[in-house]
Amino acid sequence: MKSSSTSDLLSRFAALVGPGHALVEEADKARYLVEWRDLYRGETPLVLRPANTAEVAAILRLAHETRTAIVPQGGNTGLVGGQVPIPGQHEIVVSLERLDKVRSIDPLGNSMIVEAGMPLASVHAAAEAADRMFPLTLASLGSCQIGGNIATNAGGTAVLAYGNARNLVLGLEVVLADGRIWNGLRQLGKDNAGYDLKQLFIGSEGTLGIITAAALRLRHRPRGVAAAFVSVGSPAAALGLFARAQAAAGFGLTGFELMSGLAMEFALRHIPGARLPTAPAPWYVLIEVSSSLSGSEADATVLDILTGATAAGEALEAAVAQSFTQIDDFWRLRHGMSEVQKHEGGSIKHDVSVPIGDLPAFLEEAMAAVEAAFPGCRPVPFGHMGDGNIHFNVSQPVGGDRQAFLARWNEMNAVVHGVVRKYDGSVAAEHGIGRLKVDLLAEVKPPLDLELMGRLKAAFDPLGILNPGRVIRRP
Amino acid sequence: MKILVPVKRVVDYNVNIRVKADGSGVDLANVKMSMNPFDEISVEEALRLREAGIASEVVAVSIGPKEAQETVRTALAMGADRGIVLEAEGTVEPLAVAKLLKAIVAEEAPGLVILGKQAIDDDCNQTGQMLSALLGWPQGTFASKLVLGDNGIEVTREVDGGLQTVRLSLPAVVTADLRLNEPRYASLPNIMKAKKKPIDLRPAAQYGVDLTPRLMVLKTAEPPVRPAGRRLASVAELVDCLKTEAGVL
């Protein structure tokens, strides 16, 4: 964008959305420019809040014509900086928050069409009102938006039973880089008529198009849910417990989360009213089982798992929830786990996955490696053991200097990712690449992968105006 | 001393309840039912008194459908010694419950009855008080602390604007408030033990208490939807709104 024509251009963009929805004042723009991990501070001349798909299309037409970079933004809960406009780049933020309506819902067909800016919690509520559920569940449920969830192929705690966002999308409506609207809002269980184009946009992090609506796959709500909080001696014991839980519950195993003892200590210290449901132990597991039949069937399955696991020495101790309140208590400990790390000084994050069977070995090696390289640092791994996905976060030494610790972010990453790659794991399991891991991706991906990704980007966004510099490097 | 703990089976606190289409009540089909949260607190308090050597036995009693056995089983899984269920279909109002509990007290001769201060389904907050009156026993309601001594029991009560401490002679009736304690989770061994503990299931009708409701529900309605907030451009606009729309200035 040339600075001489800047104000002209901004006025042209502003005219495309309703009055009050083109934000230029710093105070109005502020909430679009910060993200909660505080790794990035954004800068933008303009935040646009279009009301509908047509307005998004008009914005992209103009952006295409004037080669203006656009940063699409949902609930601004991304953890890798993809949604934050880069200072000095004059990127315009397009917030989808006003596209927040349910277009249609078909309980018998188990599908629902919603607009991209609907908060995930509202999607849940709409499905529930039709006696169905939309399974995707993340800690940021109340703020994140479905469009962003799909654009980042979000994971979360229900992946084990229901899959990532990708598995829950039947169709998409996408505004392309040149402003044309691609209507892929189909609700078909099977559709092999040519390339499955929607898949390209899922997980593209806003670099190939802007998702404006989605046809979502709904599920019947389980009639019964049971949960147990289990203390275990080691990740290896947890792995045995996982195999046992899968065997007993089958598709009804809807949650299996691993939490380290130190991660739990942080949670107990900083979550108001939090209590440990068992005696202190080196590791903990949260098991959730759902039943399409009844609560008592779910309860019986959980007891069967725990009885066997106790006899086999996999479980040290277990508490079984007697009410939804207690199930929530257990999940609150798990969901609060990222947040509480803020209170323990600097924290260096790794969102990694390895084959599930290698998880115990990975954890042992990675913890030993970071402790050796960064004496006094406090690894607090936790996450979706059932998906082989661990948030391998490392907190600074007690009493150490926050900035000095965070300055060694890349060094720490190199140590952890080295162990990840040894096990042929992923260095970006569910949070994506954004800006944070662009260089890392370029380093770990084979050249052919990068070439194919570059060709896709060039095909969908030849001028490079959509979220430039995210996922892959600028050409 | 024996402690009697009445427990009620209610819609789980975390369920989003829905009103039946005809407004006759709340839809309970396929809805999770759990122990009334205030009753969990009274079970916990009774267990602590037993663990402190003050009580010798904790008996959980429930009045309701056959499924109320599950609720009593939860009390047993927390650690209560045995259970009683008086089977009765439909709504049983607090007065009838209090009369049935009085009959159970006559059989069991407890030194203390600890109830939840109210049930979260009908929010009546009457049963404990009625039981106390029917028995002619002293009552300590809304308890946030219990201290048993030689001269009876000291009950710290949560009253408007502060705390009040009363001393009751035993036997007595106490109702538990939220801050009395934090109920324990049921551990696996205790759940397995609870399966073997006895629950005595009897028809409520055998006590000759008239269970017919005396109240008629005229209508059940959802609370009005709270309109979303909106952002105003200026203080002048706000003042205008407060005058014209809200009518508070």
UniProtKB/TrEMBL annotation, chain A:
Names of the cofactor(s): FAD
Residues in FAD-binding PCMH-type domain copies: 40-221
Pfam families: FAD-oxidase_C, FAD_binding_4
A GO term, aspect molecular function: catalytic activity
Keyword set includes Metal-binding: no
Top-level taxon in the UniProt lineage: Bacteria
UniProt cross-references to InterPro entries, sorted A to Z: FAD-bd_oxidored_4_C, FAD-bd_PCMH, FAD-bd_PCMH-like_sf, FAD-bd_PCMH_sub1, FAD-bd_PCMH_sub2, FAD-linked_Oxase-like_C, FAD-oxidored/transferase_4, Oxid_FAD_bind_N
Keyword Signal: no
A biological process from GO: respiratory electron transport chain
Coiled coil region boundaries: none
Keywords from the UniProt entry: FAD, Flavoprotein
Protein family membership: Belongs to the FAD-binding oxidoreductase/transferase type 4 family.
Full protein name: Hydroxyacid dehydrogenase
UniProt source species: Pleomorphomonas diazotrophica
From TrEMBL, chain B:
Similarity comment: family membership: Belongs to the ETF beta-subunit/FixA family.
Species, as recorded: Pleomorphomonas diazotrophica
GO MF terms, alphabetically ordered: electron transfer activity
SMART domains, A to Z: ETF (SM00893)
Coiled-coil features, chain-numbered ranges: none
UniProt keyword Thylakoid present: no
Signal peptide (residue range): none
Function text: The electron transfer flavoprotein serves as a specific electron acceptor for other dehydrogenases. It transfers the electrons to the main respiratory chain via ETF-ubiquinone oxidoreductase (ETF dehydrogenase).
Descriptive protein name: Electron transfer flavoprotein subunit beta
Listed InterPro entries: ET-Flavoprotein_bsu_CS (IPR000049), ETF_a/b_N (IPR014730), ETF_b (IPR012255), ETF_beta_N (IPR033948), Rossmann-like_a/b/a_fold (IPR014729)
Entry keywords, A to Z: Electron transport, Transport
Gene Ontology biological-process entries: carboxylic acid catabolic process
Cofactor requirement: AMP
Chain ranges of the Electron transfer flavoprotein alpha/beta-subunit N-terminal domain: 23-211
Subunit structure: Heterodimer of an alpha and a beta subunit.
